[in-house]
From TrEMBL:
Keyword list, A-Z: Cytoplasm, GTP-binding, Magnesium, Metal-binding, Nucleotide-binding
Hflx-type G domain boundaries: 198-365
Sites where the protein binds Mg(2+): S211, T231
Binding site for GTP: 204-211, 229-233, 251-254, 317-320
Recorded GO CC terms: cytoplasm
Organism: Photobacterium swingsii
Name of this chain's protein: GTPase HflX
Length: 429
């Protein structure tokens, strides 16, 4: 489709420190990204600048240093820990005589390796095509579709124009398929909303331990590894929460600082699970020295996908890596749980997490004692059994049933609406 140097597994890594805060990236995180992509770093070239250079992103001297390092080390690819413009990529490739990849392209490549489901592969392909469409090179302009003959003189559709048209057609086809997937997900969400089943969505910085916590709670056995973006495809499982009942727990893709916009747009259907969740479990690697910056990065992405207003419970994970850390619940001034300290790997503090989930999701719990006449016992008692809210029951000499129940206010209100006979008529206390 377009001329680019072939990429390989031997890389030169380039990291520039900027005085402008908006351009700041973390070198150790980039090294983890490169490792997650299966690439071997031969040398790390670092430098400092106030602002990016318009031609090479780095200065001309630093660009020549990178080119020399490529020749000396025999590298096959140069990876920048920054977002490059298409022109900067082309200029650097011409100078270095090898493939140049920026941070966005690296993340897209990792996503392409990790995607397993049909939906995940479509989402990654969509993000890749949108990224590639800005980087088509005019290397095939001599291939014109029409030329010569009366009425056909002059240049017709060049190969570059053909490539752009094919890209647009493929993007439209993928969007149509993803629209079908989105409708299926919407149907599932509407069904859960009708049944008033709460949804808990795991969010957090990549490699914070979301999938490990998901497996600990649900025994789902989803892939979990100590690497960035181990999870791409969303997984949903049922869990039981005391005083709440059945809930849905969703494991989602991890976020990262400066997450590419193409990825956010492509994963719109997946991220909708986060937007419409009843509660977000924000999993944080408490052993990471930069956990506060990671929390801010996740909050920025949540704002970008319109999920900033969803109620949140922060889970400080990996306390087994902290000396003297104990599992506990941190509460606000009103006594509402805000943070839970756990270790998903060791299973420490999981009971406290469920306690916090109960307090955040159950809302107002009510207790009633009802006396049910014989003709209503079977129907009403079966509904209470389904909700698992019966504390005590005793049959009276006249055949009626005295029953003590404890359940959320929402469940009581729903039973009131659906039952032809008012439950309040049977309440004794």
């Amino acid at each position: 489709m377009f001329d680019r140097y072939e990429a390989g597994e031997q890389a030169i890594l380039v990291h520039i420190n900027f005085t402008q805060e908006g351009e700041w990236e973390d070198l150790s995180e980039c090294e983890m990204l490169v490792s997650s992509a299966g690439v071997n770093t031969l040398r790390v070239v670092t430098g400092s600048r106030k602002t990016p250079h318009p031609k090479y992103y780095v200065g001309e001297g630093k660009a020549q240093e990178i080119a020399d390092a490529v020749r000396m080390e025999g590298a096959e690819i140069v990876i920048f820990n920054h977002a490059l413009s298409p022109a900067q990529e082309r200029n650097l490739e011409y100078l270095c005589k090898c493939r140049v990849l920026d941070r966005t392209g690296l993340i897209l490549d990792i996503f392409a390796q990790r995607a397993r489901t049909h939906e995940g592969k479509l989402q990654v392909e969509l993000a890749q095509l949108r990224h590639i469409s800005t980087r088509l090179i005019r290397g095939w302009t001599h291939l014109e579709r029409q030329k010569g003959g009366i009425g056909l003189r002059g240049p017709g559709e060049t190969q570059l124009e053909t490539d752009r048209r094919l890209l647009r057609d493929r993007i439209k086809a993928i969007l149509r398929r993803l629209e079908k997937v989105s409708k299926q997900r919407d149907q599932g969400r509407r069904a859960r909303n009708r049944a008033e089943i709460p949804t808990i969505s795991l969010v957090g910085y990549t490699n914070a331990g979301k999938s490990t916590l998901f497996n600990r709670i649900t025994d789902a056995g989803v892939y979990a590894a100590d690497q960035l973006f181990a999870t791409l495809d969303p997984t949903l499982r049922k869990i039981e929460v005391a005083d709440v009942g059945t809930s849905i727990l969703a494991d989602t893709v991890g976020f990262i600082r400066h997450l590419p916009h193409d990825l956010v747009a492509a994963f719109k259907a997946t991220l909708k699970e986060t937007q419409e969740a009843s509660l977000l479990l924000h999993v944080v690697d408490a052993s990471d020295d930069r956990f506060r910056e990671n929390i801010e990065a996740v909050d920025d992405v949540l704002e970008e996908i319109d999920a900033g207003e969803v109620p949140m419970l922060i889970v400080m994970n990996k306390i087994d890596n902290l000396e003297g850390a104990e599992p506990r619940i941190e509460r606000d001034d009103e006594g509402v749980p805000r943070r839970v300290w756990v270790s998903a790997m060791e299973g420490i503090g999981i009971d406290l997490l469920f306690q916090a989930l109960t307090e955040r999701l159950a809302g107002t719990m009510i207790c009633h004692t009802l006396r049910l006449p014989p003709q209503h016992i079977g129907r009403i008692r079966s509904k209470f059994c389904q909700l698992d809210c019966i504390l005590r029951e005793e049959y009276e000499p006249d055949g009626s049933l005295t029953i003590d129940i404890r359940l959320p206010q929402a469940d009581w209100s729903r039973l009131e609406k659906r039952d032809s006979a008012s439950l309040d008529d049977f309440v004794v206390s």
